[in-house]
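Backbone-to-sequence.
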């Protein structure tokens, strides 16, 4: 089948980008990855190719490097950009706010300037439910007040505003900011998945490390939250569902100006729901101990996912059992 055109995926070697690349290829587009591998491994590119069944092109570049970005757009006409490149560790962003601003916000400015130079007018952007700050009502819909509670969140808000201005400046520009809730899981092939460097900050990679015996136990951040079992509630979404959401957004970009759309399941699951499902589905033990709350955490956060259904015809298909099974399959396969 002839390609429908090339799609540039900044951050395409990352956890989410690698899964998006697979779905982009499955929909008949040619994914072109662009990554500086600051939080991912080069071997991911070949593994994406293995899943797709053909080699995938990857440009090694930093989005802040204007010359390299010009060279990337000059090498192939791009139908659109899916902009996933970014740093995402909340704690690190508190320690290094300038780095986060430079990498995420200034990097996006450089990317947009290169797109303008080459007449690329379409973008899907990796935003986050962090733009809602502390939840003021549940479920969280797109009209929920916006606010940042850490420098990472501020970069996502700054970029959404930059994209408002970019879209407003020209009628022919089309942007969709996808506000992800909590992406977890891995591709069913177990060839790509999440492998954060060092001690993970997020729940699922931490659970995986405990199940593998690399960490002694999971510290549960609070057992006295006003939730069904006292532990924190979030909207976990399978990364393959999330990746499909990018393709449906891409297909409908031309009817958008700058639309901001939640990608979540709409279901709230607790830390212990995740732990118990992980143990039951995978037949492994996840020792845990309830400890103090983590600063900056909310009791519960989950999406009103109805706009994605109305606007994109998208809804999550995979459930918690799929998420924990696939996360474990990837972790145990990549250990071999
Ligand atoms: P990831 O760290 O696995 O992937 C990010 C990729 O971007 C990496 O491959 C990294 O090397 C690359 N990158 C970072 N800075 C770059 C730069 N200056 N130039 C070129 N490449 C660069 O993270 P992920 O989970 O795949 O996240 C992808 C995007 O989704 C990020 O923008 C993140 O903020 C956003 N997001 C993630 C989550 C989540 O929980 N994973 C939630 C909401 C939003
Ligand atoms: C965190 C970030 C958020 C970011 C998101 C995705 C904070 C305060 N928030 O959100 O800005 O958008 O990751 O990258 O860092 N938990 C434990 N023990 C652990 C790890 C987590 O009990 O070792 C609990 C948390 O308290 C929470 C749930 O598990 O209730 C999910 O945590 P996590 O995966 O870090 O995601 P968020 O808290 O949603």
């Amino acid at each position: 089948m002839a390609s429908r055109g090339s799609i540039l995926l900044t951050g395409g070697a990352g956890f989410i980008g690698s899964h998006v690349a697979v779905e982009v290829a499955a929909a008949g587009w040619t994914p072109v990855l662009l990554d500086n591998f600051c939080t991912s491994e080069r071997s991911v590119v070949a593994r994406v190719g293995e899943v797709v069944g053909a080699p995938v092109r990857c440009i090694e570049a930093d989005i802040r490097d204007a010359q390299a970005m010009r060279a990337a757009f000059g090498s192939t006409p791009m139908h659109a950009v899916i902009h996933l490149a970014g740093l995402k560790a909340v704690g690190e962003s508190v320690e290094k706010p300038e780095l986060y601003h430079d990498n995420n916000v200034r990097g996006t400015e450089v990317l947009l300037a290169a797109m303008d130079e080459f007449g690329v007018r379409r973008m899907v952007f990796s935003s986050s439910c962090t733009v809602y700050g502390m939840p003021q009502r549940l479920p969280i819909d797109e009209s929920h007040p916006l606010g940042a509670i850490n420098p990472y969140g501020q970069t996502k808000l700054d970029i959404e505003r930059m994209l408002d201005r970019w879209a407003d400046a020209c009628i022919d520009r089309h942007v969709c900011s996808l506000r992800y809730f909590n992406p977890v899981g891995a591709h069913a092939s177990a060839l790509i998945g999440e492998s954060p460097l060092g001690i993970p900050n997020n729940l699922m990679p931490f659970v995986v490390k405990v199940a593998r015996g690399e960490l002694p136990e999971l510290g549960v951040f609070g057992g006295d939250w006003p939730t069904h079992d006292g532990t924190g509630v979030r909207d976990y979404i399978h990364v393959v569902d999330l990746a499909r959401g990018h393709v449906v957004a891409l297909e409908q970009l031309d009817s958008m100006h700058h639309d901001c759309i939640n990608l979540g399941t709409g279901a709230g699951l607790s830390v212990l729901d995740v732990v118990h499902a992980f143990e039951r589905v995978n037949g492994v033990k996840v020792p845990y101990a309830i400890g103090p709350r983590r600063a900056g955490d909310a009791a519960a956060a989950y999406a009103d996912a109805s706009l994605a259904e109305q606007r994109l015809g998208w809804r999550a298909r995979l459930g918690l059992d799929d998420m924990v099974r696939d996360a474990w399959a990837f972790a145990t396969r990549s250990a071999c």
